Fold each of these.
Amino acid sequence: MSGSIPAKHTSPAAALIFALLKIAAIVLLLFLMIVQLKGQKISKADFDTVEKAVMDTVDTSVIKEADPAMIRRLYGLESKDFDRIILYYPSSNMGAEEVLLVKLHDTDQAGLVRQAVDRRLSAQKASFAGYGADQTAMLEAAQIDVEGNYILFISSAQPDKTVAAFKKSL
Amino acid sequence: MPRQTSPSKKKKTNVIPDVIVLIFLITAVVLILTHHARSRQNEAAVKEGREYLAQMDSVKPESVEAVIKQHQLDKIALERQTILNHMSDMVTKAAASVTDDSDASAPSLWSYFKDYALLGDSRASGFSYYGYLSEDRCFADLGLTIENIPDYTDQLTALDPSYVLFSFGANGVKNMIGGDAAGYAEEYRQKLAQLQESLPDSRFFVLSILPTLPSTYADTPNFQNIDAYNAALKTMCDANGYVFIDCTDTASQHQDLYEGDGIHVSAAFYPYWGADMLLGIYRDPESLNDMADQQMTEKSSTTP
């Protein structure tokens, strides 16, 4: 009597499937790690430099800089809670161009800023709905970009251009 | 031989005490006379005060209130005259402040807006958007029409303003609310009458519909009929006790202050528009009476 345990049999197809699943899991894990690390990327770029890069792509003739009271009124954000924050809002009550640039103290603040931007965007869309077609189109194309400790919200004629400049400056 | 004293030296010694005494006497007389005069003045004042109090004792409280009310009215009339005399300067100052980003609001013109509320559309929303008037008292937004007036009943009731300004029209004319000018005025009347039930003590001011520039006529032909709408609104106001404030001339004089869409006006226009509103308020006798009542109420509530 030999007493050996018979070898476990795995079909080639099953082995292939398992191998593919392992590869997929590794790839997925790597992807998630990259996304997570990218989201938490801390930029050491100077805020004024980032601001200049952003504002160079925007038509400043139709917007004006907001003071902390206006930032609080339009976004419900307290300027002193952030490392730096700047808002340019429409010079005219019929305008939809807007730039919000925030440097966070902590990346955990990103959620708060995103919610504020969403509320502001919703309010603007509601104001212009069925009233200002051009403004509505601009608001629909508006973008918010979170890059670690920097957040940009842009509503303008060429938001892609501004976002590209923003990313490049970080 | 006894020593002889010089006569002149002896005389000198006797005069000085006399002079001093004389000075004291004169001073005493002057003081007495002065005191007497003051006493007589005080007695006269006290007598007058007693007579006044005696008179007041016999006067009914309602008459006293009327006297105080008249005093307030006189004060407001003086305020009105100040506004009329200095309106040009105030508007110039307000208009100049528009270009100063550090202080685009709160010139003296706006300080005369007291105990008010403003309802309106996108054009009216500029009053609060540009910081001229408080957003707590401005209920104006894009796309609003006279049909939205009832939506603000609760907020207005809570505010209980002495006067309410209504600035609608662009959207109503564009969408032909009421069908035509007469129909629009009738709809407006109904909405105001409904609101007045909740605000029986508030005075209503209807602002004329600002004209639009000719460039808008192609898209909205009915904008050419704004004059007819305003005429109908004036007739409606006159018949129902509302005050119509016509800003057409002001808009015509400042066409360069319209936005590119030919409908909305720039921040620089609002001081001129606000001046029209203020003049309309201060030229209305009933409003002045309400202001006097309001000030009397405020005074009595703060008096310990």
Amino acid sequence: MLDNYALAFNKCAGFPDLCTTFRTYLSTLKFCAIVWTVTLVLGFTIAYYLNFEIRSTTTRIVLALICTIPFWTSNVIRMISWIPLLGRNGLINQILLNLGVIHQPLEWLLYSDFSVTLALVHINTVFMIVPILNSMSRIDRSLVEAAYDAGATGWQTLWNVIIPLSKAGITIGSIFVITIVMGDFVTTGVMGGQQIASAGKVIETEIGALQFPIAAAQAIILLAIVLMIIWTLIRFVDIRKEL
Amino acid sequence: MRDRRSRIFYVLSIVFGLYVLFLYGPIITITILSFQGPNGGLTFPMNGVSLHWFSNLWAGIGVPNVVGALENSLKLGLVVTVLTVVISVMAGLAFRRKFRGRNALFYTAIASLTLPSIVVSLGIALEFQLANQSISAAGDSLVDQFGSSDNHSPVATVLGGIGAAIQDNFQTLMGLFTSGLGAHLTWTLPFGLLILFAVFNRFNRSYEEASRDLGASAWQAFRHVVLPIIAPSLLGVALFGFTLSWDEIARSSQAVGAVNTLPLTLQGLTTTVTTPVIYALGTVTTGISLAVIVCILGCVFFVQARRRRHGSDAGRGLV
């Protein structure tokens, strides 16, 4: 009955060489960690800027719309759009060559871990911005004022007042980003030149080879990992209260 | 209140500007490159300016039917939009009452957002395969039992005929408007539900009660009071419904059956097409998305402006 799971972890007994499945999951987790960190910092910064530094409501709405409109356009197109910029003869290589910074085109810009990470950040930052902005917009300004009056520095206010009060948004954003990146196979496929493995890609390949039982076993493993992460995160927040 | 801007403001403004550039730079690049001259390549420099690649796209680019895929996506998107709006409203109304299993249902609906798309897609595909198999098996067993036997009662003949018809005609239940539609709804409905839960959480029931007191029936209260109040949010739900379906790829990948939607076709093209025609296709797709977004946002602003003009004059005094 567990044959399919055994097959999914085929040849995993022979340490120290990690088997393919473990390596794939490690690599997926690595992408996930990097993308999560970058989108969190970027998303938080932008939400902070929109909520605390922009004073007029109209400007805030317009700027927030500017950030969210690409979310409603095609992801594949947004990935393809990187090709003329990052390719071997792309804009970035041309500029760097002309400036004399490099003498040969950089190969690692496209179809590499770098381009996959870049595209994932590009597509998923909005999932951080919106929930964090939503949480921040409910912070009572007088709390921030009170912190200043009590002598807190900017960083102390940020760390002890604003971040704890934005916790719910941060959690929801993290859930979105982590689930999307863990299950991703389209971005990894297109931006990795179909050469980089990820948990989702493995499942897709197995479906393509009509190996449904193994694909299903892999899907359950992936699901279990994602649910464990979400379970951990969700203890920090009651989603119903956030609506 | 209008004190001087702090240094942080300027630093963050630069960060924000760079982020917007990062967000829009690539798409602007391919829009420019899609007007590449006939001899131009996939990258800069521009080799003249022309509509060559758009006409190339319109003529069909030698790949199976991009225009067909575009139509499929449009049709599916419209159906998904309508269903998403209708179901979300009904669910939103239902969730205003307490009923058994309320929380369980809520978390089940939201859980669909947090499942990896490939898992959902595979699940739907397998579900439909099982259904296919059982229908085929039913057809076979009907033919076995009644098809060629010497039992010539009318019932047996009809059952045998049904079995034969299944064997001859039935191929698959999977398709754009069965499994494909289901896959898209697993993605659009949770967004719609969340928006409407948020709307009804803030909904002031006294308007509704007032209309009841004035003798409105349940339907009238909904049609003339609740619906106009939530209308702008419904446009938002429609925006999510259409655009998410229009761009959906991961959940459709295993579940649309034989036909292809536009994003799936596009994904296939990324590995085979090496001319700017793919940029032209990208420009057209983004154009359609933007047109829908602008239309809907325009409608929202229009509704809100109209509401301000025709709204209540309560509290304005007798002027």
